[in-house]
Adenine DNA glycosylase
Amino acid sequence: MRDWPDSAELLTFYDHNARKMPWRVGPKERAKGVLPDPYRVWMSEIMLQQTTVAAVKDYFERFTARWPTVSDLAAAEDADVMAEWAGLGYYARARNLLKCARYVVTEHDGVFPDTVEALLTLPGVGPYTAGAVASIAFDQPATVVDGNVERVMARVFDIHTPLPAAKPELTEKAAAMTPRERPGDYAQAVMDLGATICTPRNPACGLCPWRSDCKAQAAGTAAELPKKIPKKPKPIRHGVVYIAKRVDGAYLLETRPDSGLLGGMLGWPGSGWTEGHAPKHDAPIKAEWKTLNSEAKHTFTHFHLRLTVKTALVPMDRKPSVGAFVLEDDYDSGNLPTAMRKAFDLYRGT
DNA sequence: GACACGTGGAC
DNA sequence: TGTCCAAGTGT
């Protein structure tokens, strides 16, 4: 066994097995040295943060069709971008996406910076994304460390230190492995490897191009790496939402505050969400409220939510204390974050 | 370092 | 059903 796997072997494997994705250039162009559009690389990398390729594809197509350049995106309305992001999760990404686009236009003449250092100054761009954009869009030998790379490095070098304490050591290994040639393809190759072969459960070691150089494979420990600190259990929080339909078909919605959970997104007015029972609150408009028989259930990263749904039909002349009515023709439950959409689906009986 | 921050698919 | 997990960042 070699001390270090060969990055060239992985690149050859990648040339034959690269997954097709809308933000990647095809094999023929790549062979000619054509680099992908930095705007598209950046967009895809933001969307891919903690999110699967399958979930991202359609969102990426819609965003780039609607806003083909960073200048187009910078000129977009906040509400349109948030509505387009609805359902993808981690909504701070969407707020930072727009902030970043406007920053690139005003401070960089609409041209994405090409160094890790400069990329790190952009909103929503951290160490991973800066490295990914620098290597994939600008052919720079940046170190790219995501969850896949952490897992692959932990296995190749049989590192048993649990995450996140192991991160510096794994990053060091990843940096030492990164080749000067085709760093962007190499980064994507390791991530493809982690997503398709060196998977968290049941890794397909028999298909791995690095099998003969992998220390965990030799030790029989691949499937149990990387070690992780156990997670805390999720508490259950309760809340109430109010779905008011006006007689003309309009719905009462509010734009949530920019900070915090579902920040900047549309939602049904309601109570806060707390353990035990929903906190005291007022209805957003005077009406004959009826409570649905079942609750809307949803699970966030760190708690389970059970929403009591109250509904009412209200006359034209009533004024809400919070939010605003959205006309029937402008209403689309697809513009709501999933927890809010579930409450609506329960109300409609779907 | 620890925690907040979404969602849907896999097992 | 419940838990784990995915191309992380900001505070």
